[in-house]
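Obj: model holo form, ligand = CO-5-methoxybenzimidazolylcobamide.
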Amino acid sequence: MSNLEELTSSVIDGQVAKAVEITQKALSAQVPAKEILDNGLLPAMNQVGSDFESGEIFLPELLMAGDAMKASIALLRPELTSTGAAYAGKCVIGTVEGDLHDIGKNIVILMLEGNGWEVTDLGIDVPPQRFCDEIKKGSYDIMGLSSLLTFTMPKMPETINVLKEAGLRNKVKVMVGGVPLNQSFADQIGADAFARDAVQAVVKARELVNK
Ligand code: B1M
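Output (holo structure tokens):
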């Protein structure tokens, strides 16, 4: 088994210390952080997602795998964000109210930061009004909303409406993302962009400020 396959297994098994150790070893061996993320960590989340769906694992295992994933990603942060890219703009991002998933959002943030974006992270379970208050405070180019749950997706149009009611909708572009979303949902709720993954989030963010 290669080191990255071993990393995938340790995340699936929720072995935080082992996942951290393998990640550290891979970084010391000059394996690029992006490769560790794409080939070691992300396959683990796909696997636990389908194991959870098919009832092979339960919430505690899902939580432990999430913890192992987050601990490993933290080690990749310095390399993923230190690219020396020119300033691109300012973005505020959060996971919508009712949703506690943040692994994907955090990867989006790492990629944006690595591409010159200044990012304010509002965290998880963010009420619509909290987004609105932040837009009022800062001069943001983009507001990013993440949702991993079908039943929290309606919080996205709700957040956009709160912005509209406060007269702030024209001040900021809205980008949405998360596994249950698609372009037609984004169009339907009046978002300015939908990004399927972190790489596309960087591309879409650049397009939004260049429009
Ligand atoms: Co949950 N969970 N979970 N979970 N979880 C899913 C999402 C699920 C699909 C699993 C399944 O059943 N197959 C399912 C949702 C089903 C649905 O909505 N129809 C589900 C469920 C049901 C639940 C609970 C309800 C379970 C329960 O309690 N019975 C519960 C909900 C809690 C809550 O939020 N209120 C729950 C809890 C959890 C944990 C806390 C245990 C944990 C999260 C840990 C954490 O995030 N800190 C967890 C996990 C780990 C998952 C899966 C397995 C993995 C998610 C993940 O991190 N993926 C997930 C199954 C799956 O997605 N395969 C699942 C890796 C990540 C890199 O990808 O998040 O998609 P992703 O992010 C991508 C893109 O989506 C995109 O870019 C990212 C990077 O490329 N993207 C954006 C995301 N946000 C973006 C924003 C953008 C642009 C792009 O612009 C702003």
